[in-house]
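>> Question from a student workshop board

For tomorrow's exercise we were told to take the sequence and the ligand below, predict the bound structure, and bring the output to class. My setup keeps failing. Could a helper post the expected result so I can at least see what it should look like? The ligand is pyridoxal-5'-phosphate.
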Amino acid sequence: MEKNEIILKRQRSAELFEEAKQYFPGGVNSPVRAFKSVFGPPLFIKEGNGCRITDEDDNTYIDFCGSWGPLILGHNNEAVREKIVSTVARGTSFGTPTRLGNELGKLIVDHNRFIDKIRFVSSGTEAVMSAIRLARGITGKSKVVKFEGCYHGHVDSLLVKAGSGLATFGESTSAGIPESFVKETLVLPLNDRKALDDTLRAYAGEIACVIVEPVPANNGLLLQDASFLECLRLKCYKYGVLLIFDEVISGFRVGFEGAAGYYGIQPDIITYGKIIGGGMPVGAYGGSHEVMSHISPDGPVYQAGTLSANPVAMAAGYATLQQLLAPGFYEGQEARTRRLVDRIQHYADRQGYDMHLEQIGSIFWIAFTRQRITRADQIDPAGMEYFKKLHRELLLRGVYLGPSGYEVGFVSAAHTEADLDQAAAIMEEALDVVFA
Ligand code: PLP
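>> Workshop helper replied:
Here is what the output should look like for this input. Compare the format with yours to find the bug.
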């Protein structure tokens, strides 16, 4: 079949999207899902198995979105599914402590040198919101430093120059955030030690914490120099400011100990989400005994949740994380992702295409420039036109990337080398069309 004759059957998804618009703003329950920056209506997915998802029109795709990161084992992992099903059979929620919560807590704390205690919540946003409150409660100060392009969920004070959906829609700060909140947030460029030092020196008496995605993965993949992150740690100590690593994406992804383990840096508070719940809604934050002693009911910082540590979610998290502890798990993830990335990169280089891929562990991102990018403002929005075309060509050929050029791709344990070779061949064909 000629390339330009390939047509994606999207009738059923289109109908469902029209229907959804009657019920949900923009037809969706999370903005980027609306496919606004790529072609066509969003795909309505009905099933996922291993590294593949199937839409309502029965098209199947090799999936590199993985529900935006949680599914490090792929879709419908057998052990995770069985654990969820056997747990559900005994009821879904009790609003009490459960043995399953203990089991997941122990598994994490026993295998993570960077936290002594953890508190489960129900989303990454909730984890970050609580971590900020904790930092403010401990220090008695109110300002928060964040970095341009880092996304920390839809926490009011952090929806200022944020990535993810805001970058996609070109409005980095949300409406509805009071000016007084914005004033409490100081936004710095990533990888810029001078800006960091100047700000901390000037405002140390008012700054409760610095929050960073140590692996910034919501505005492209803006890999930081390790020395910048080390400098950040030292400066926070120096100025009496708490350091929060937002590891909602990097946690359990770049290693079981996340970016803290990867870079060997001890933050004061770490937030988690995504993988920790094995595809169920879970977030968490953790720190030292001392830091966590400020949380209610031990301490004065209040934080609670009706469905916190929900047993079904705890079961899914446990069944997932347990598998990540298998020897060589992360090395395998990194090696298979490297193979995919290298193959595509070599092809692009041979063809003279103006692009490169960034990678850390099983996270990758396609940048439509050859320059290394470490800050949000280095991304040329014009590159998103290339992504838009690439996304369409990939869908036509059976590869699914998250519907925004600012989002990263995730390789799961269910992507075999054969799957990745197939995806790479499709990617090469799609790039030929994009750069034609
Ligand atoms: N922090 C980071 C680094 C994230 O990537 C996200 C979501 O993508 C969040 C926080 C918010 O997590 P959630 O979407 O579970 O609220």
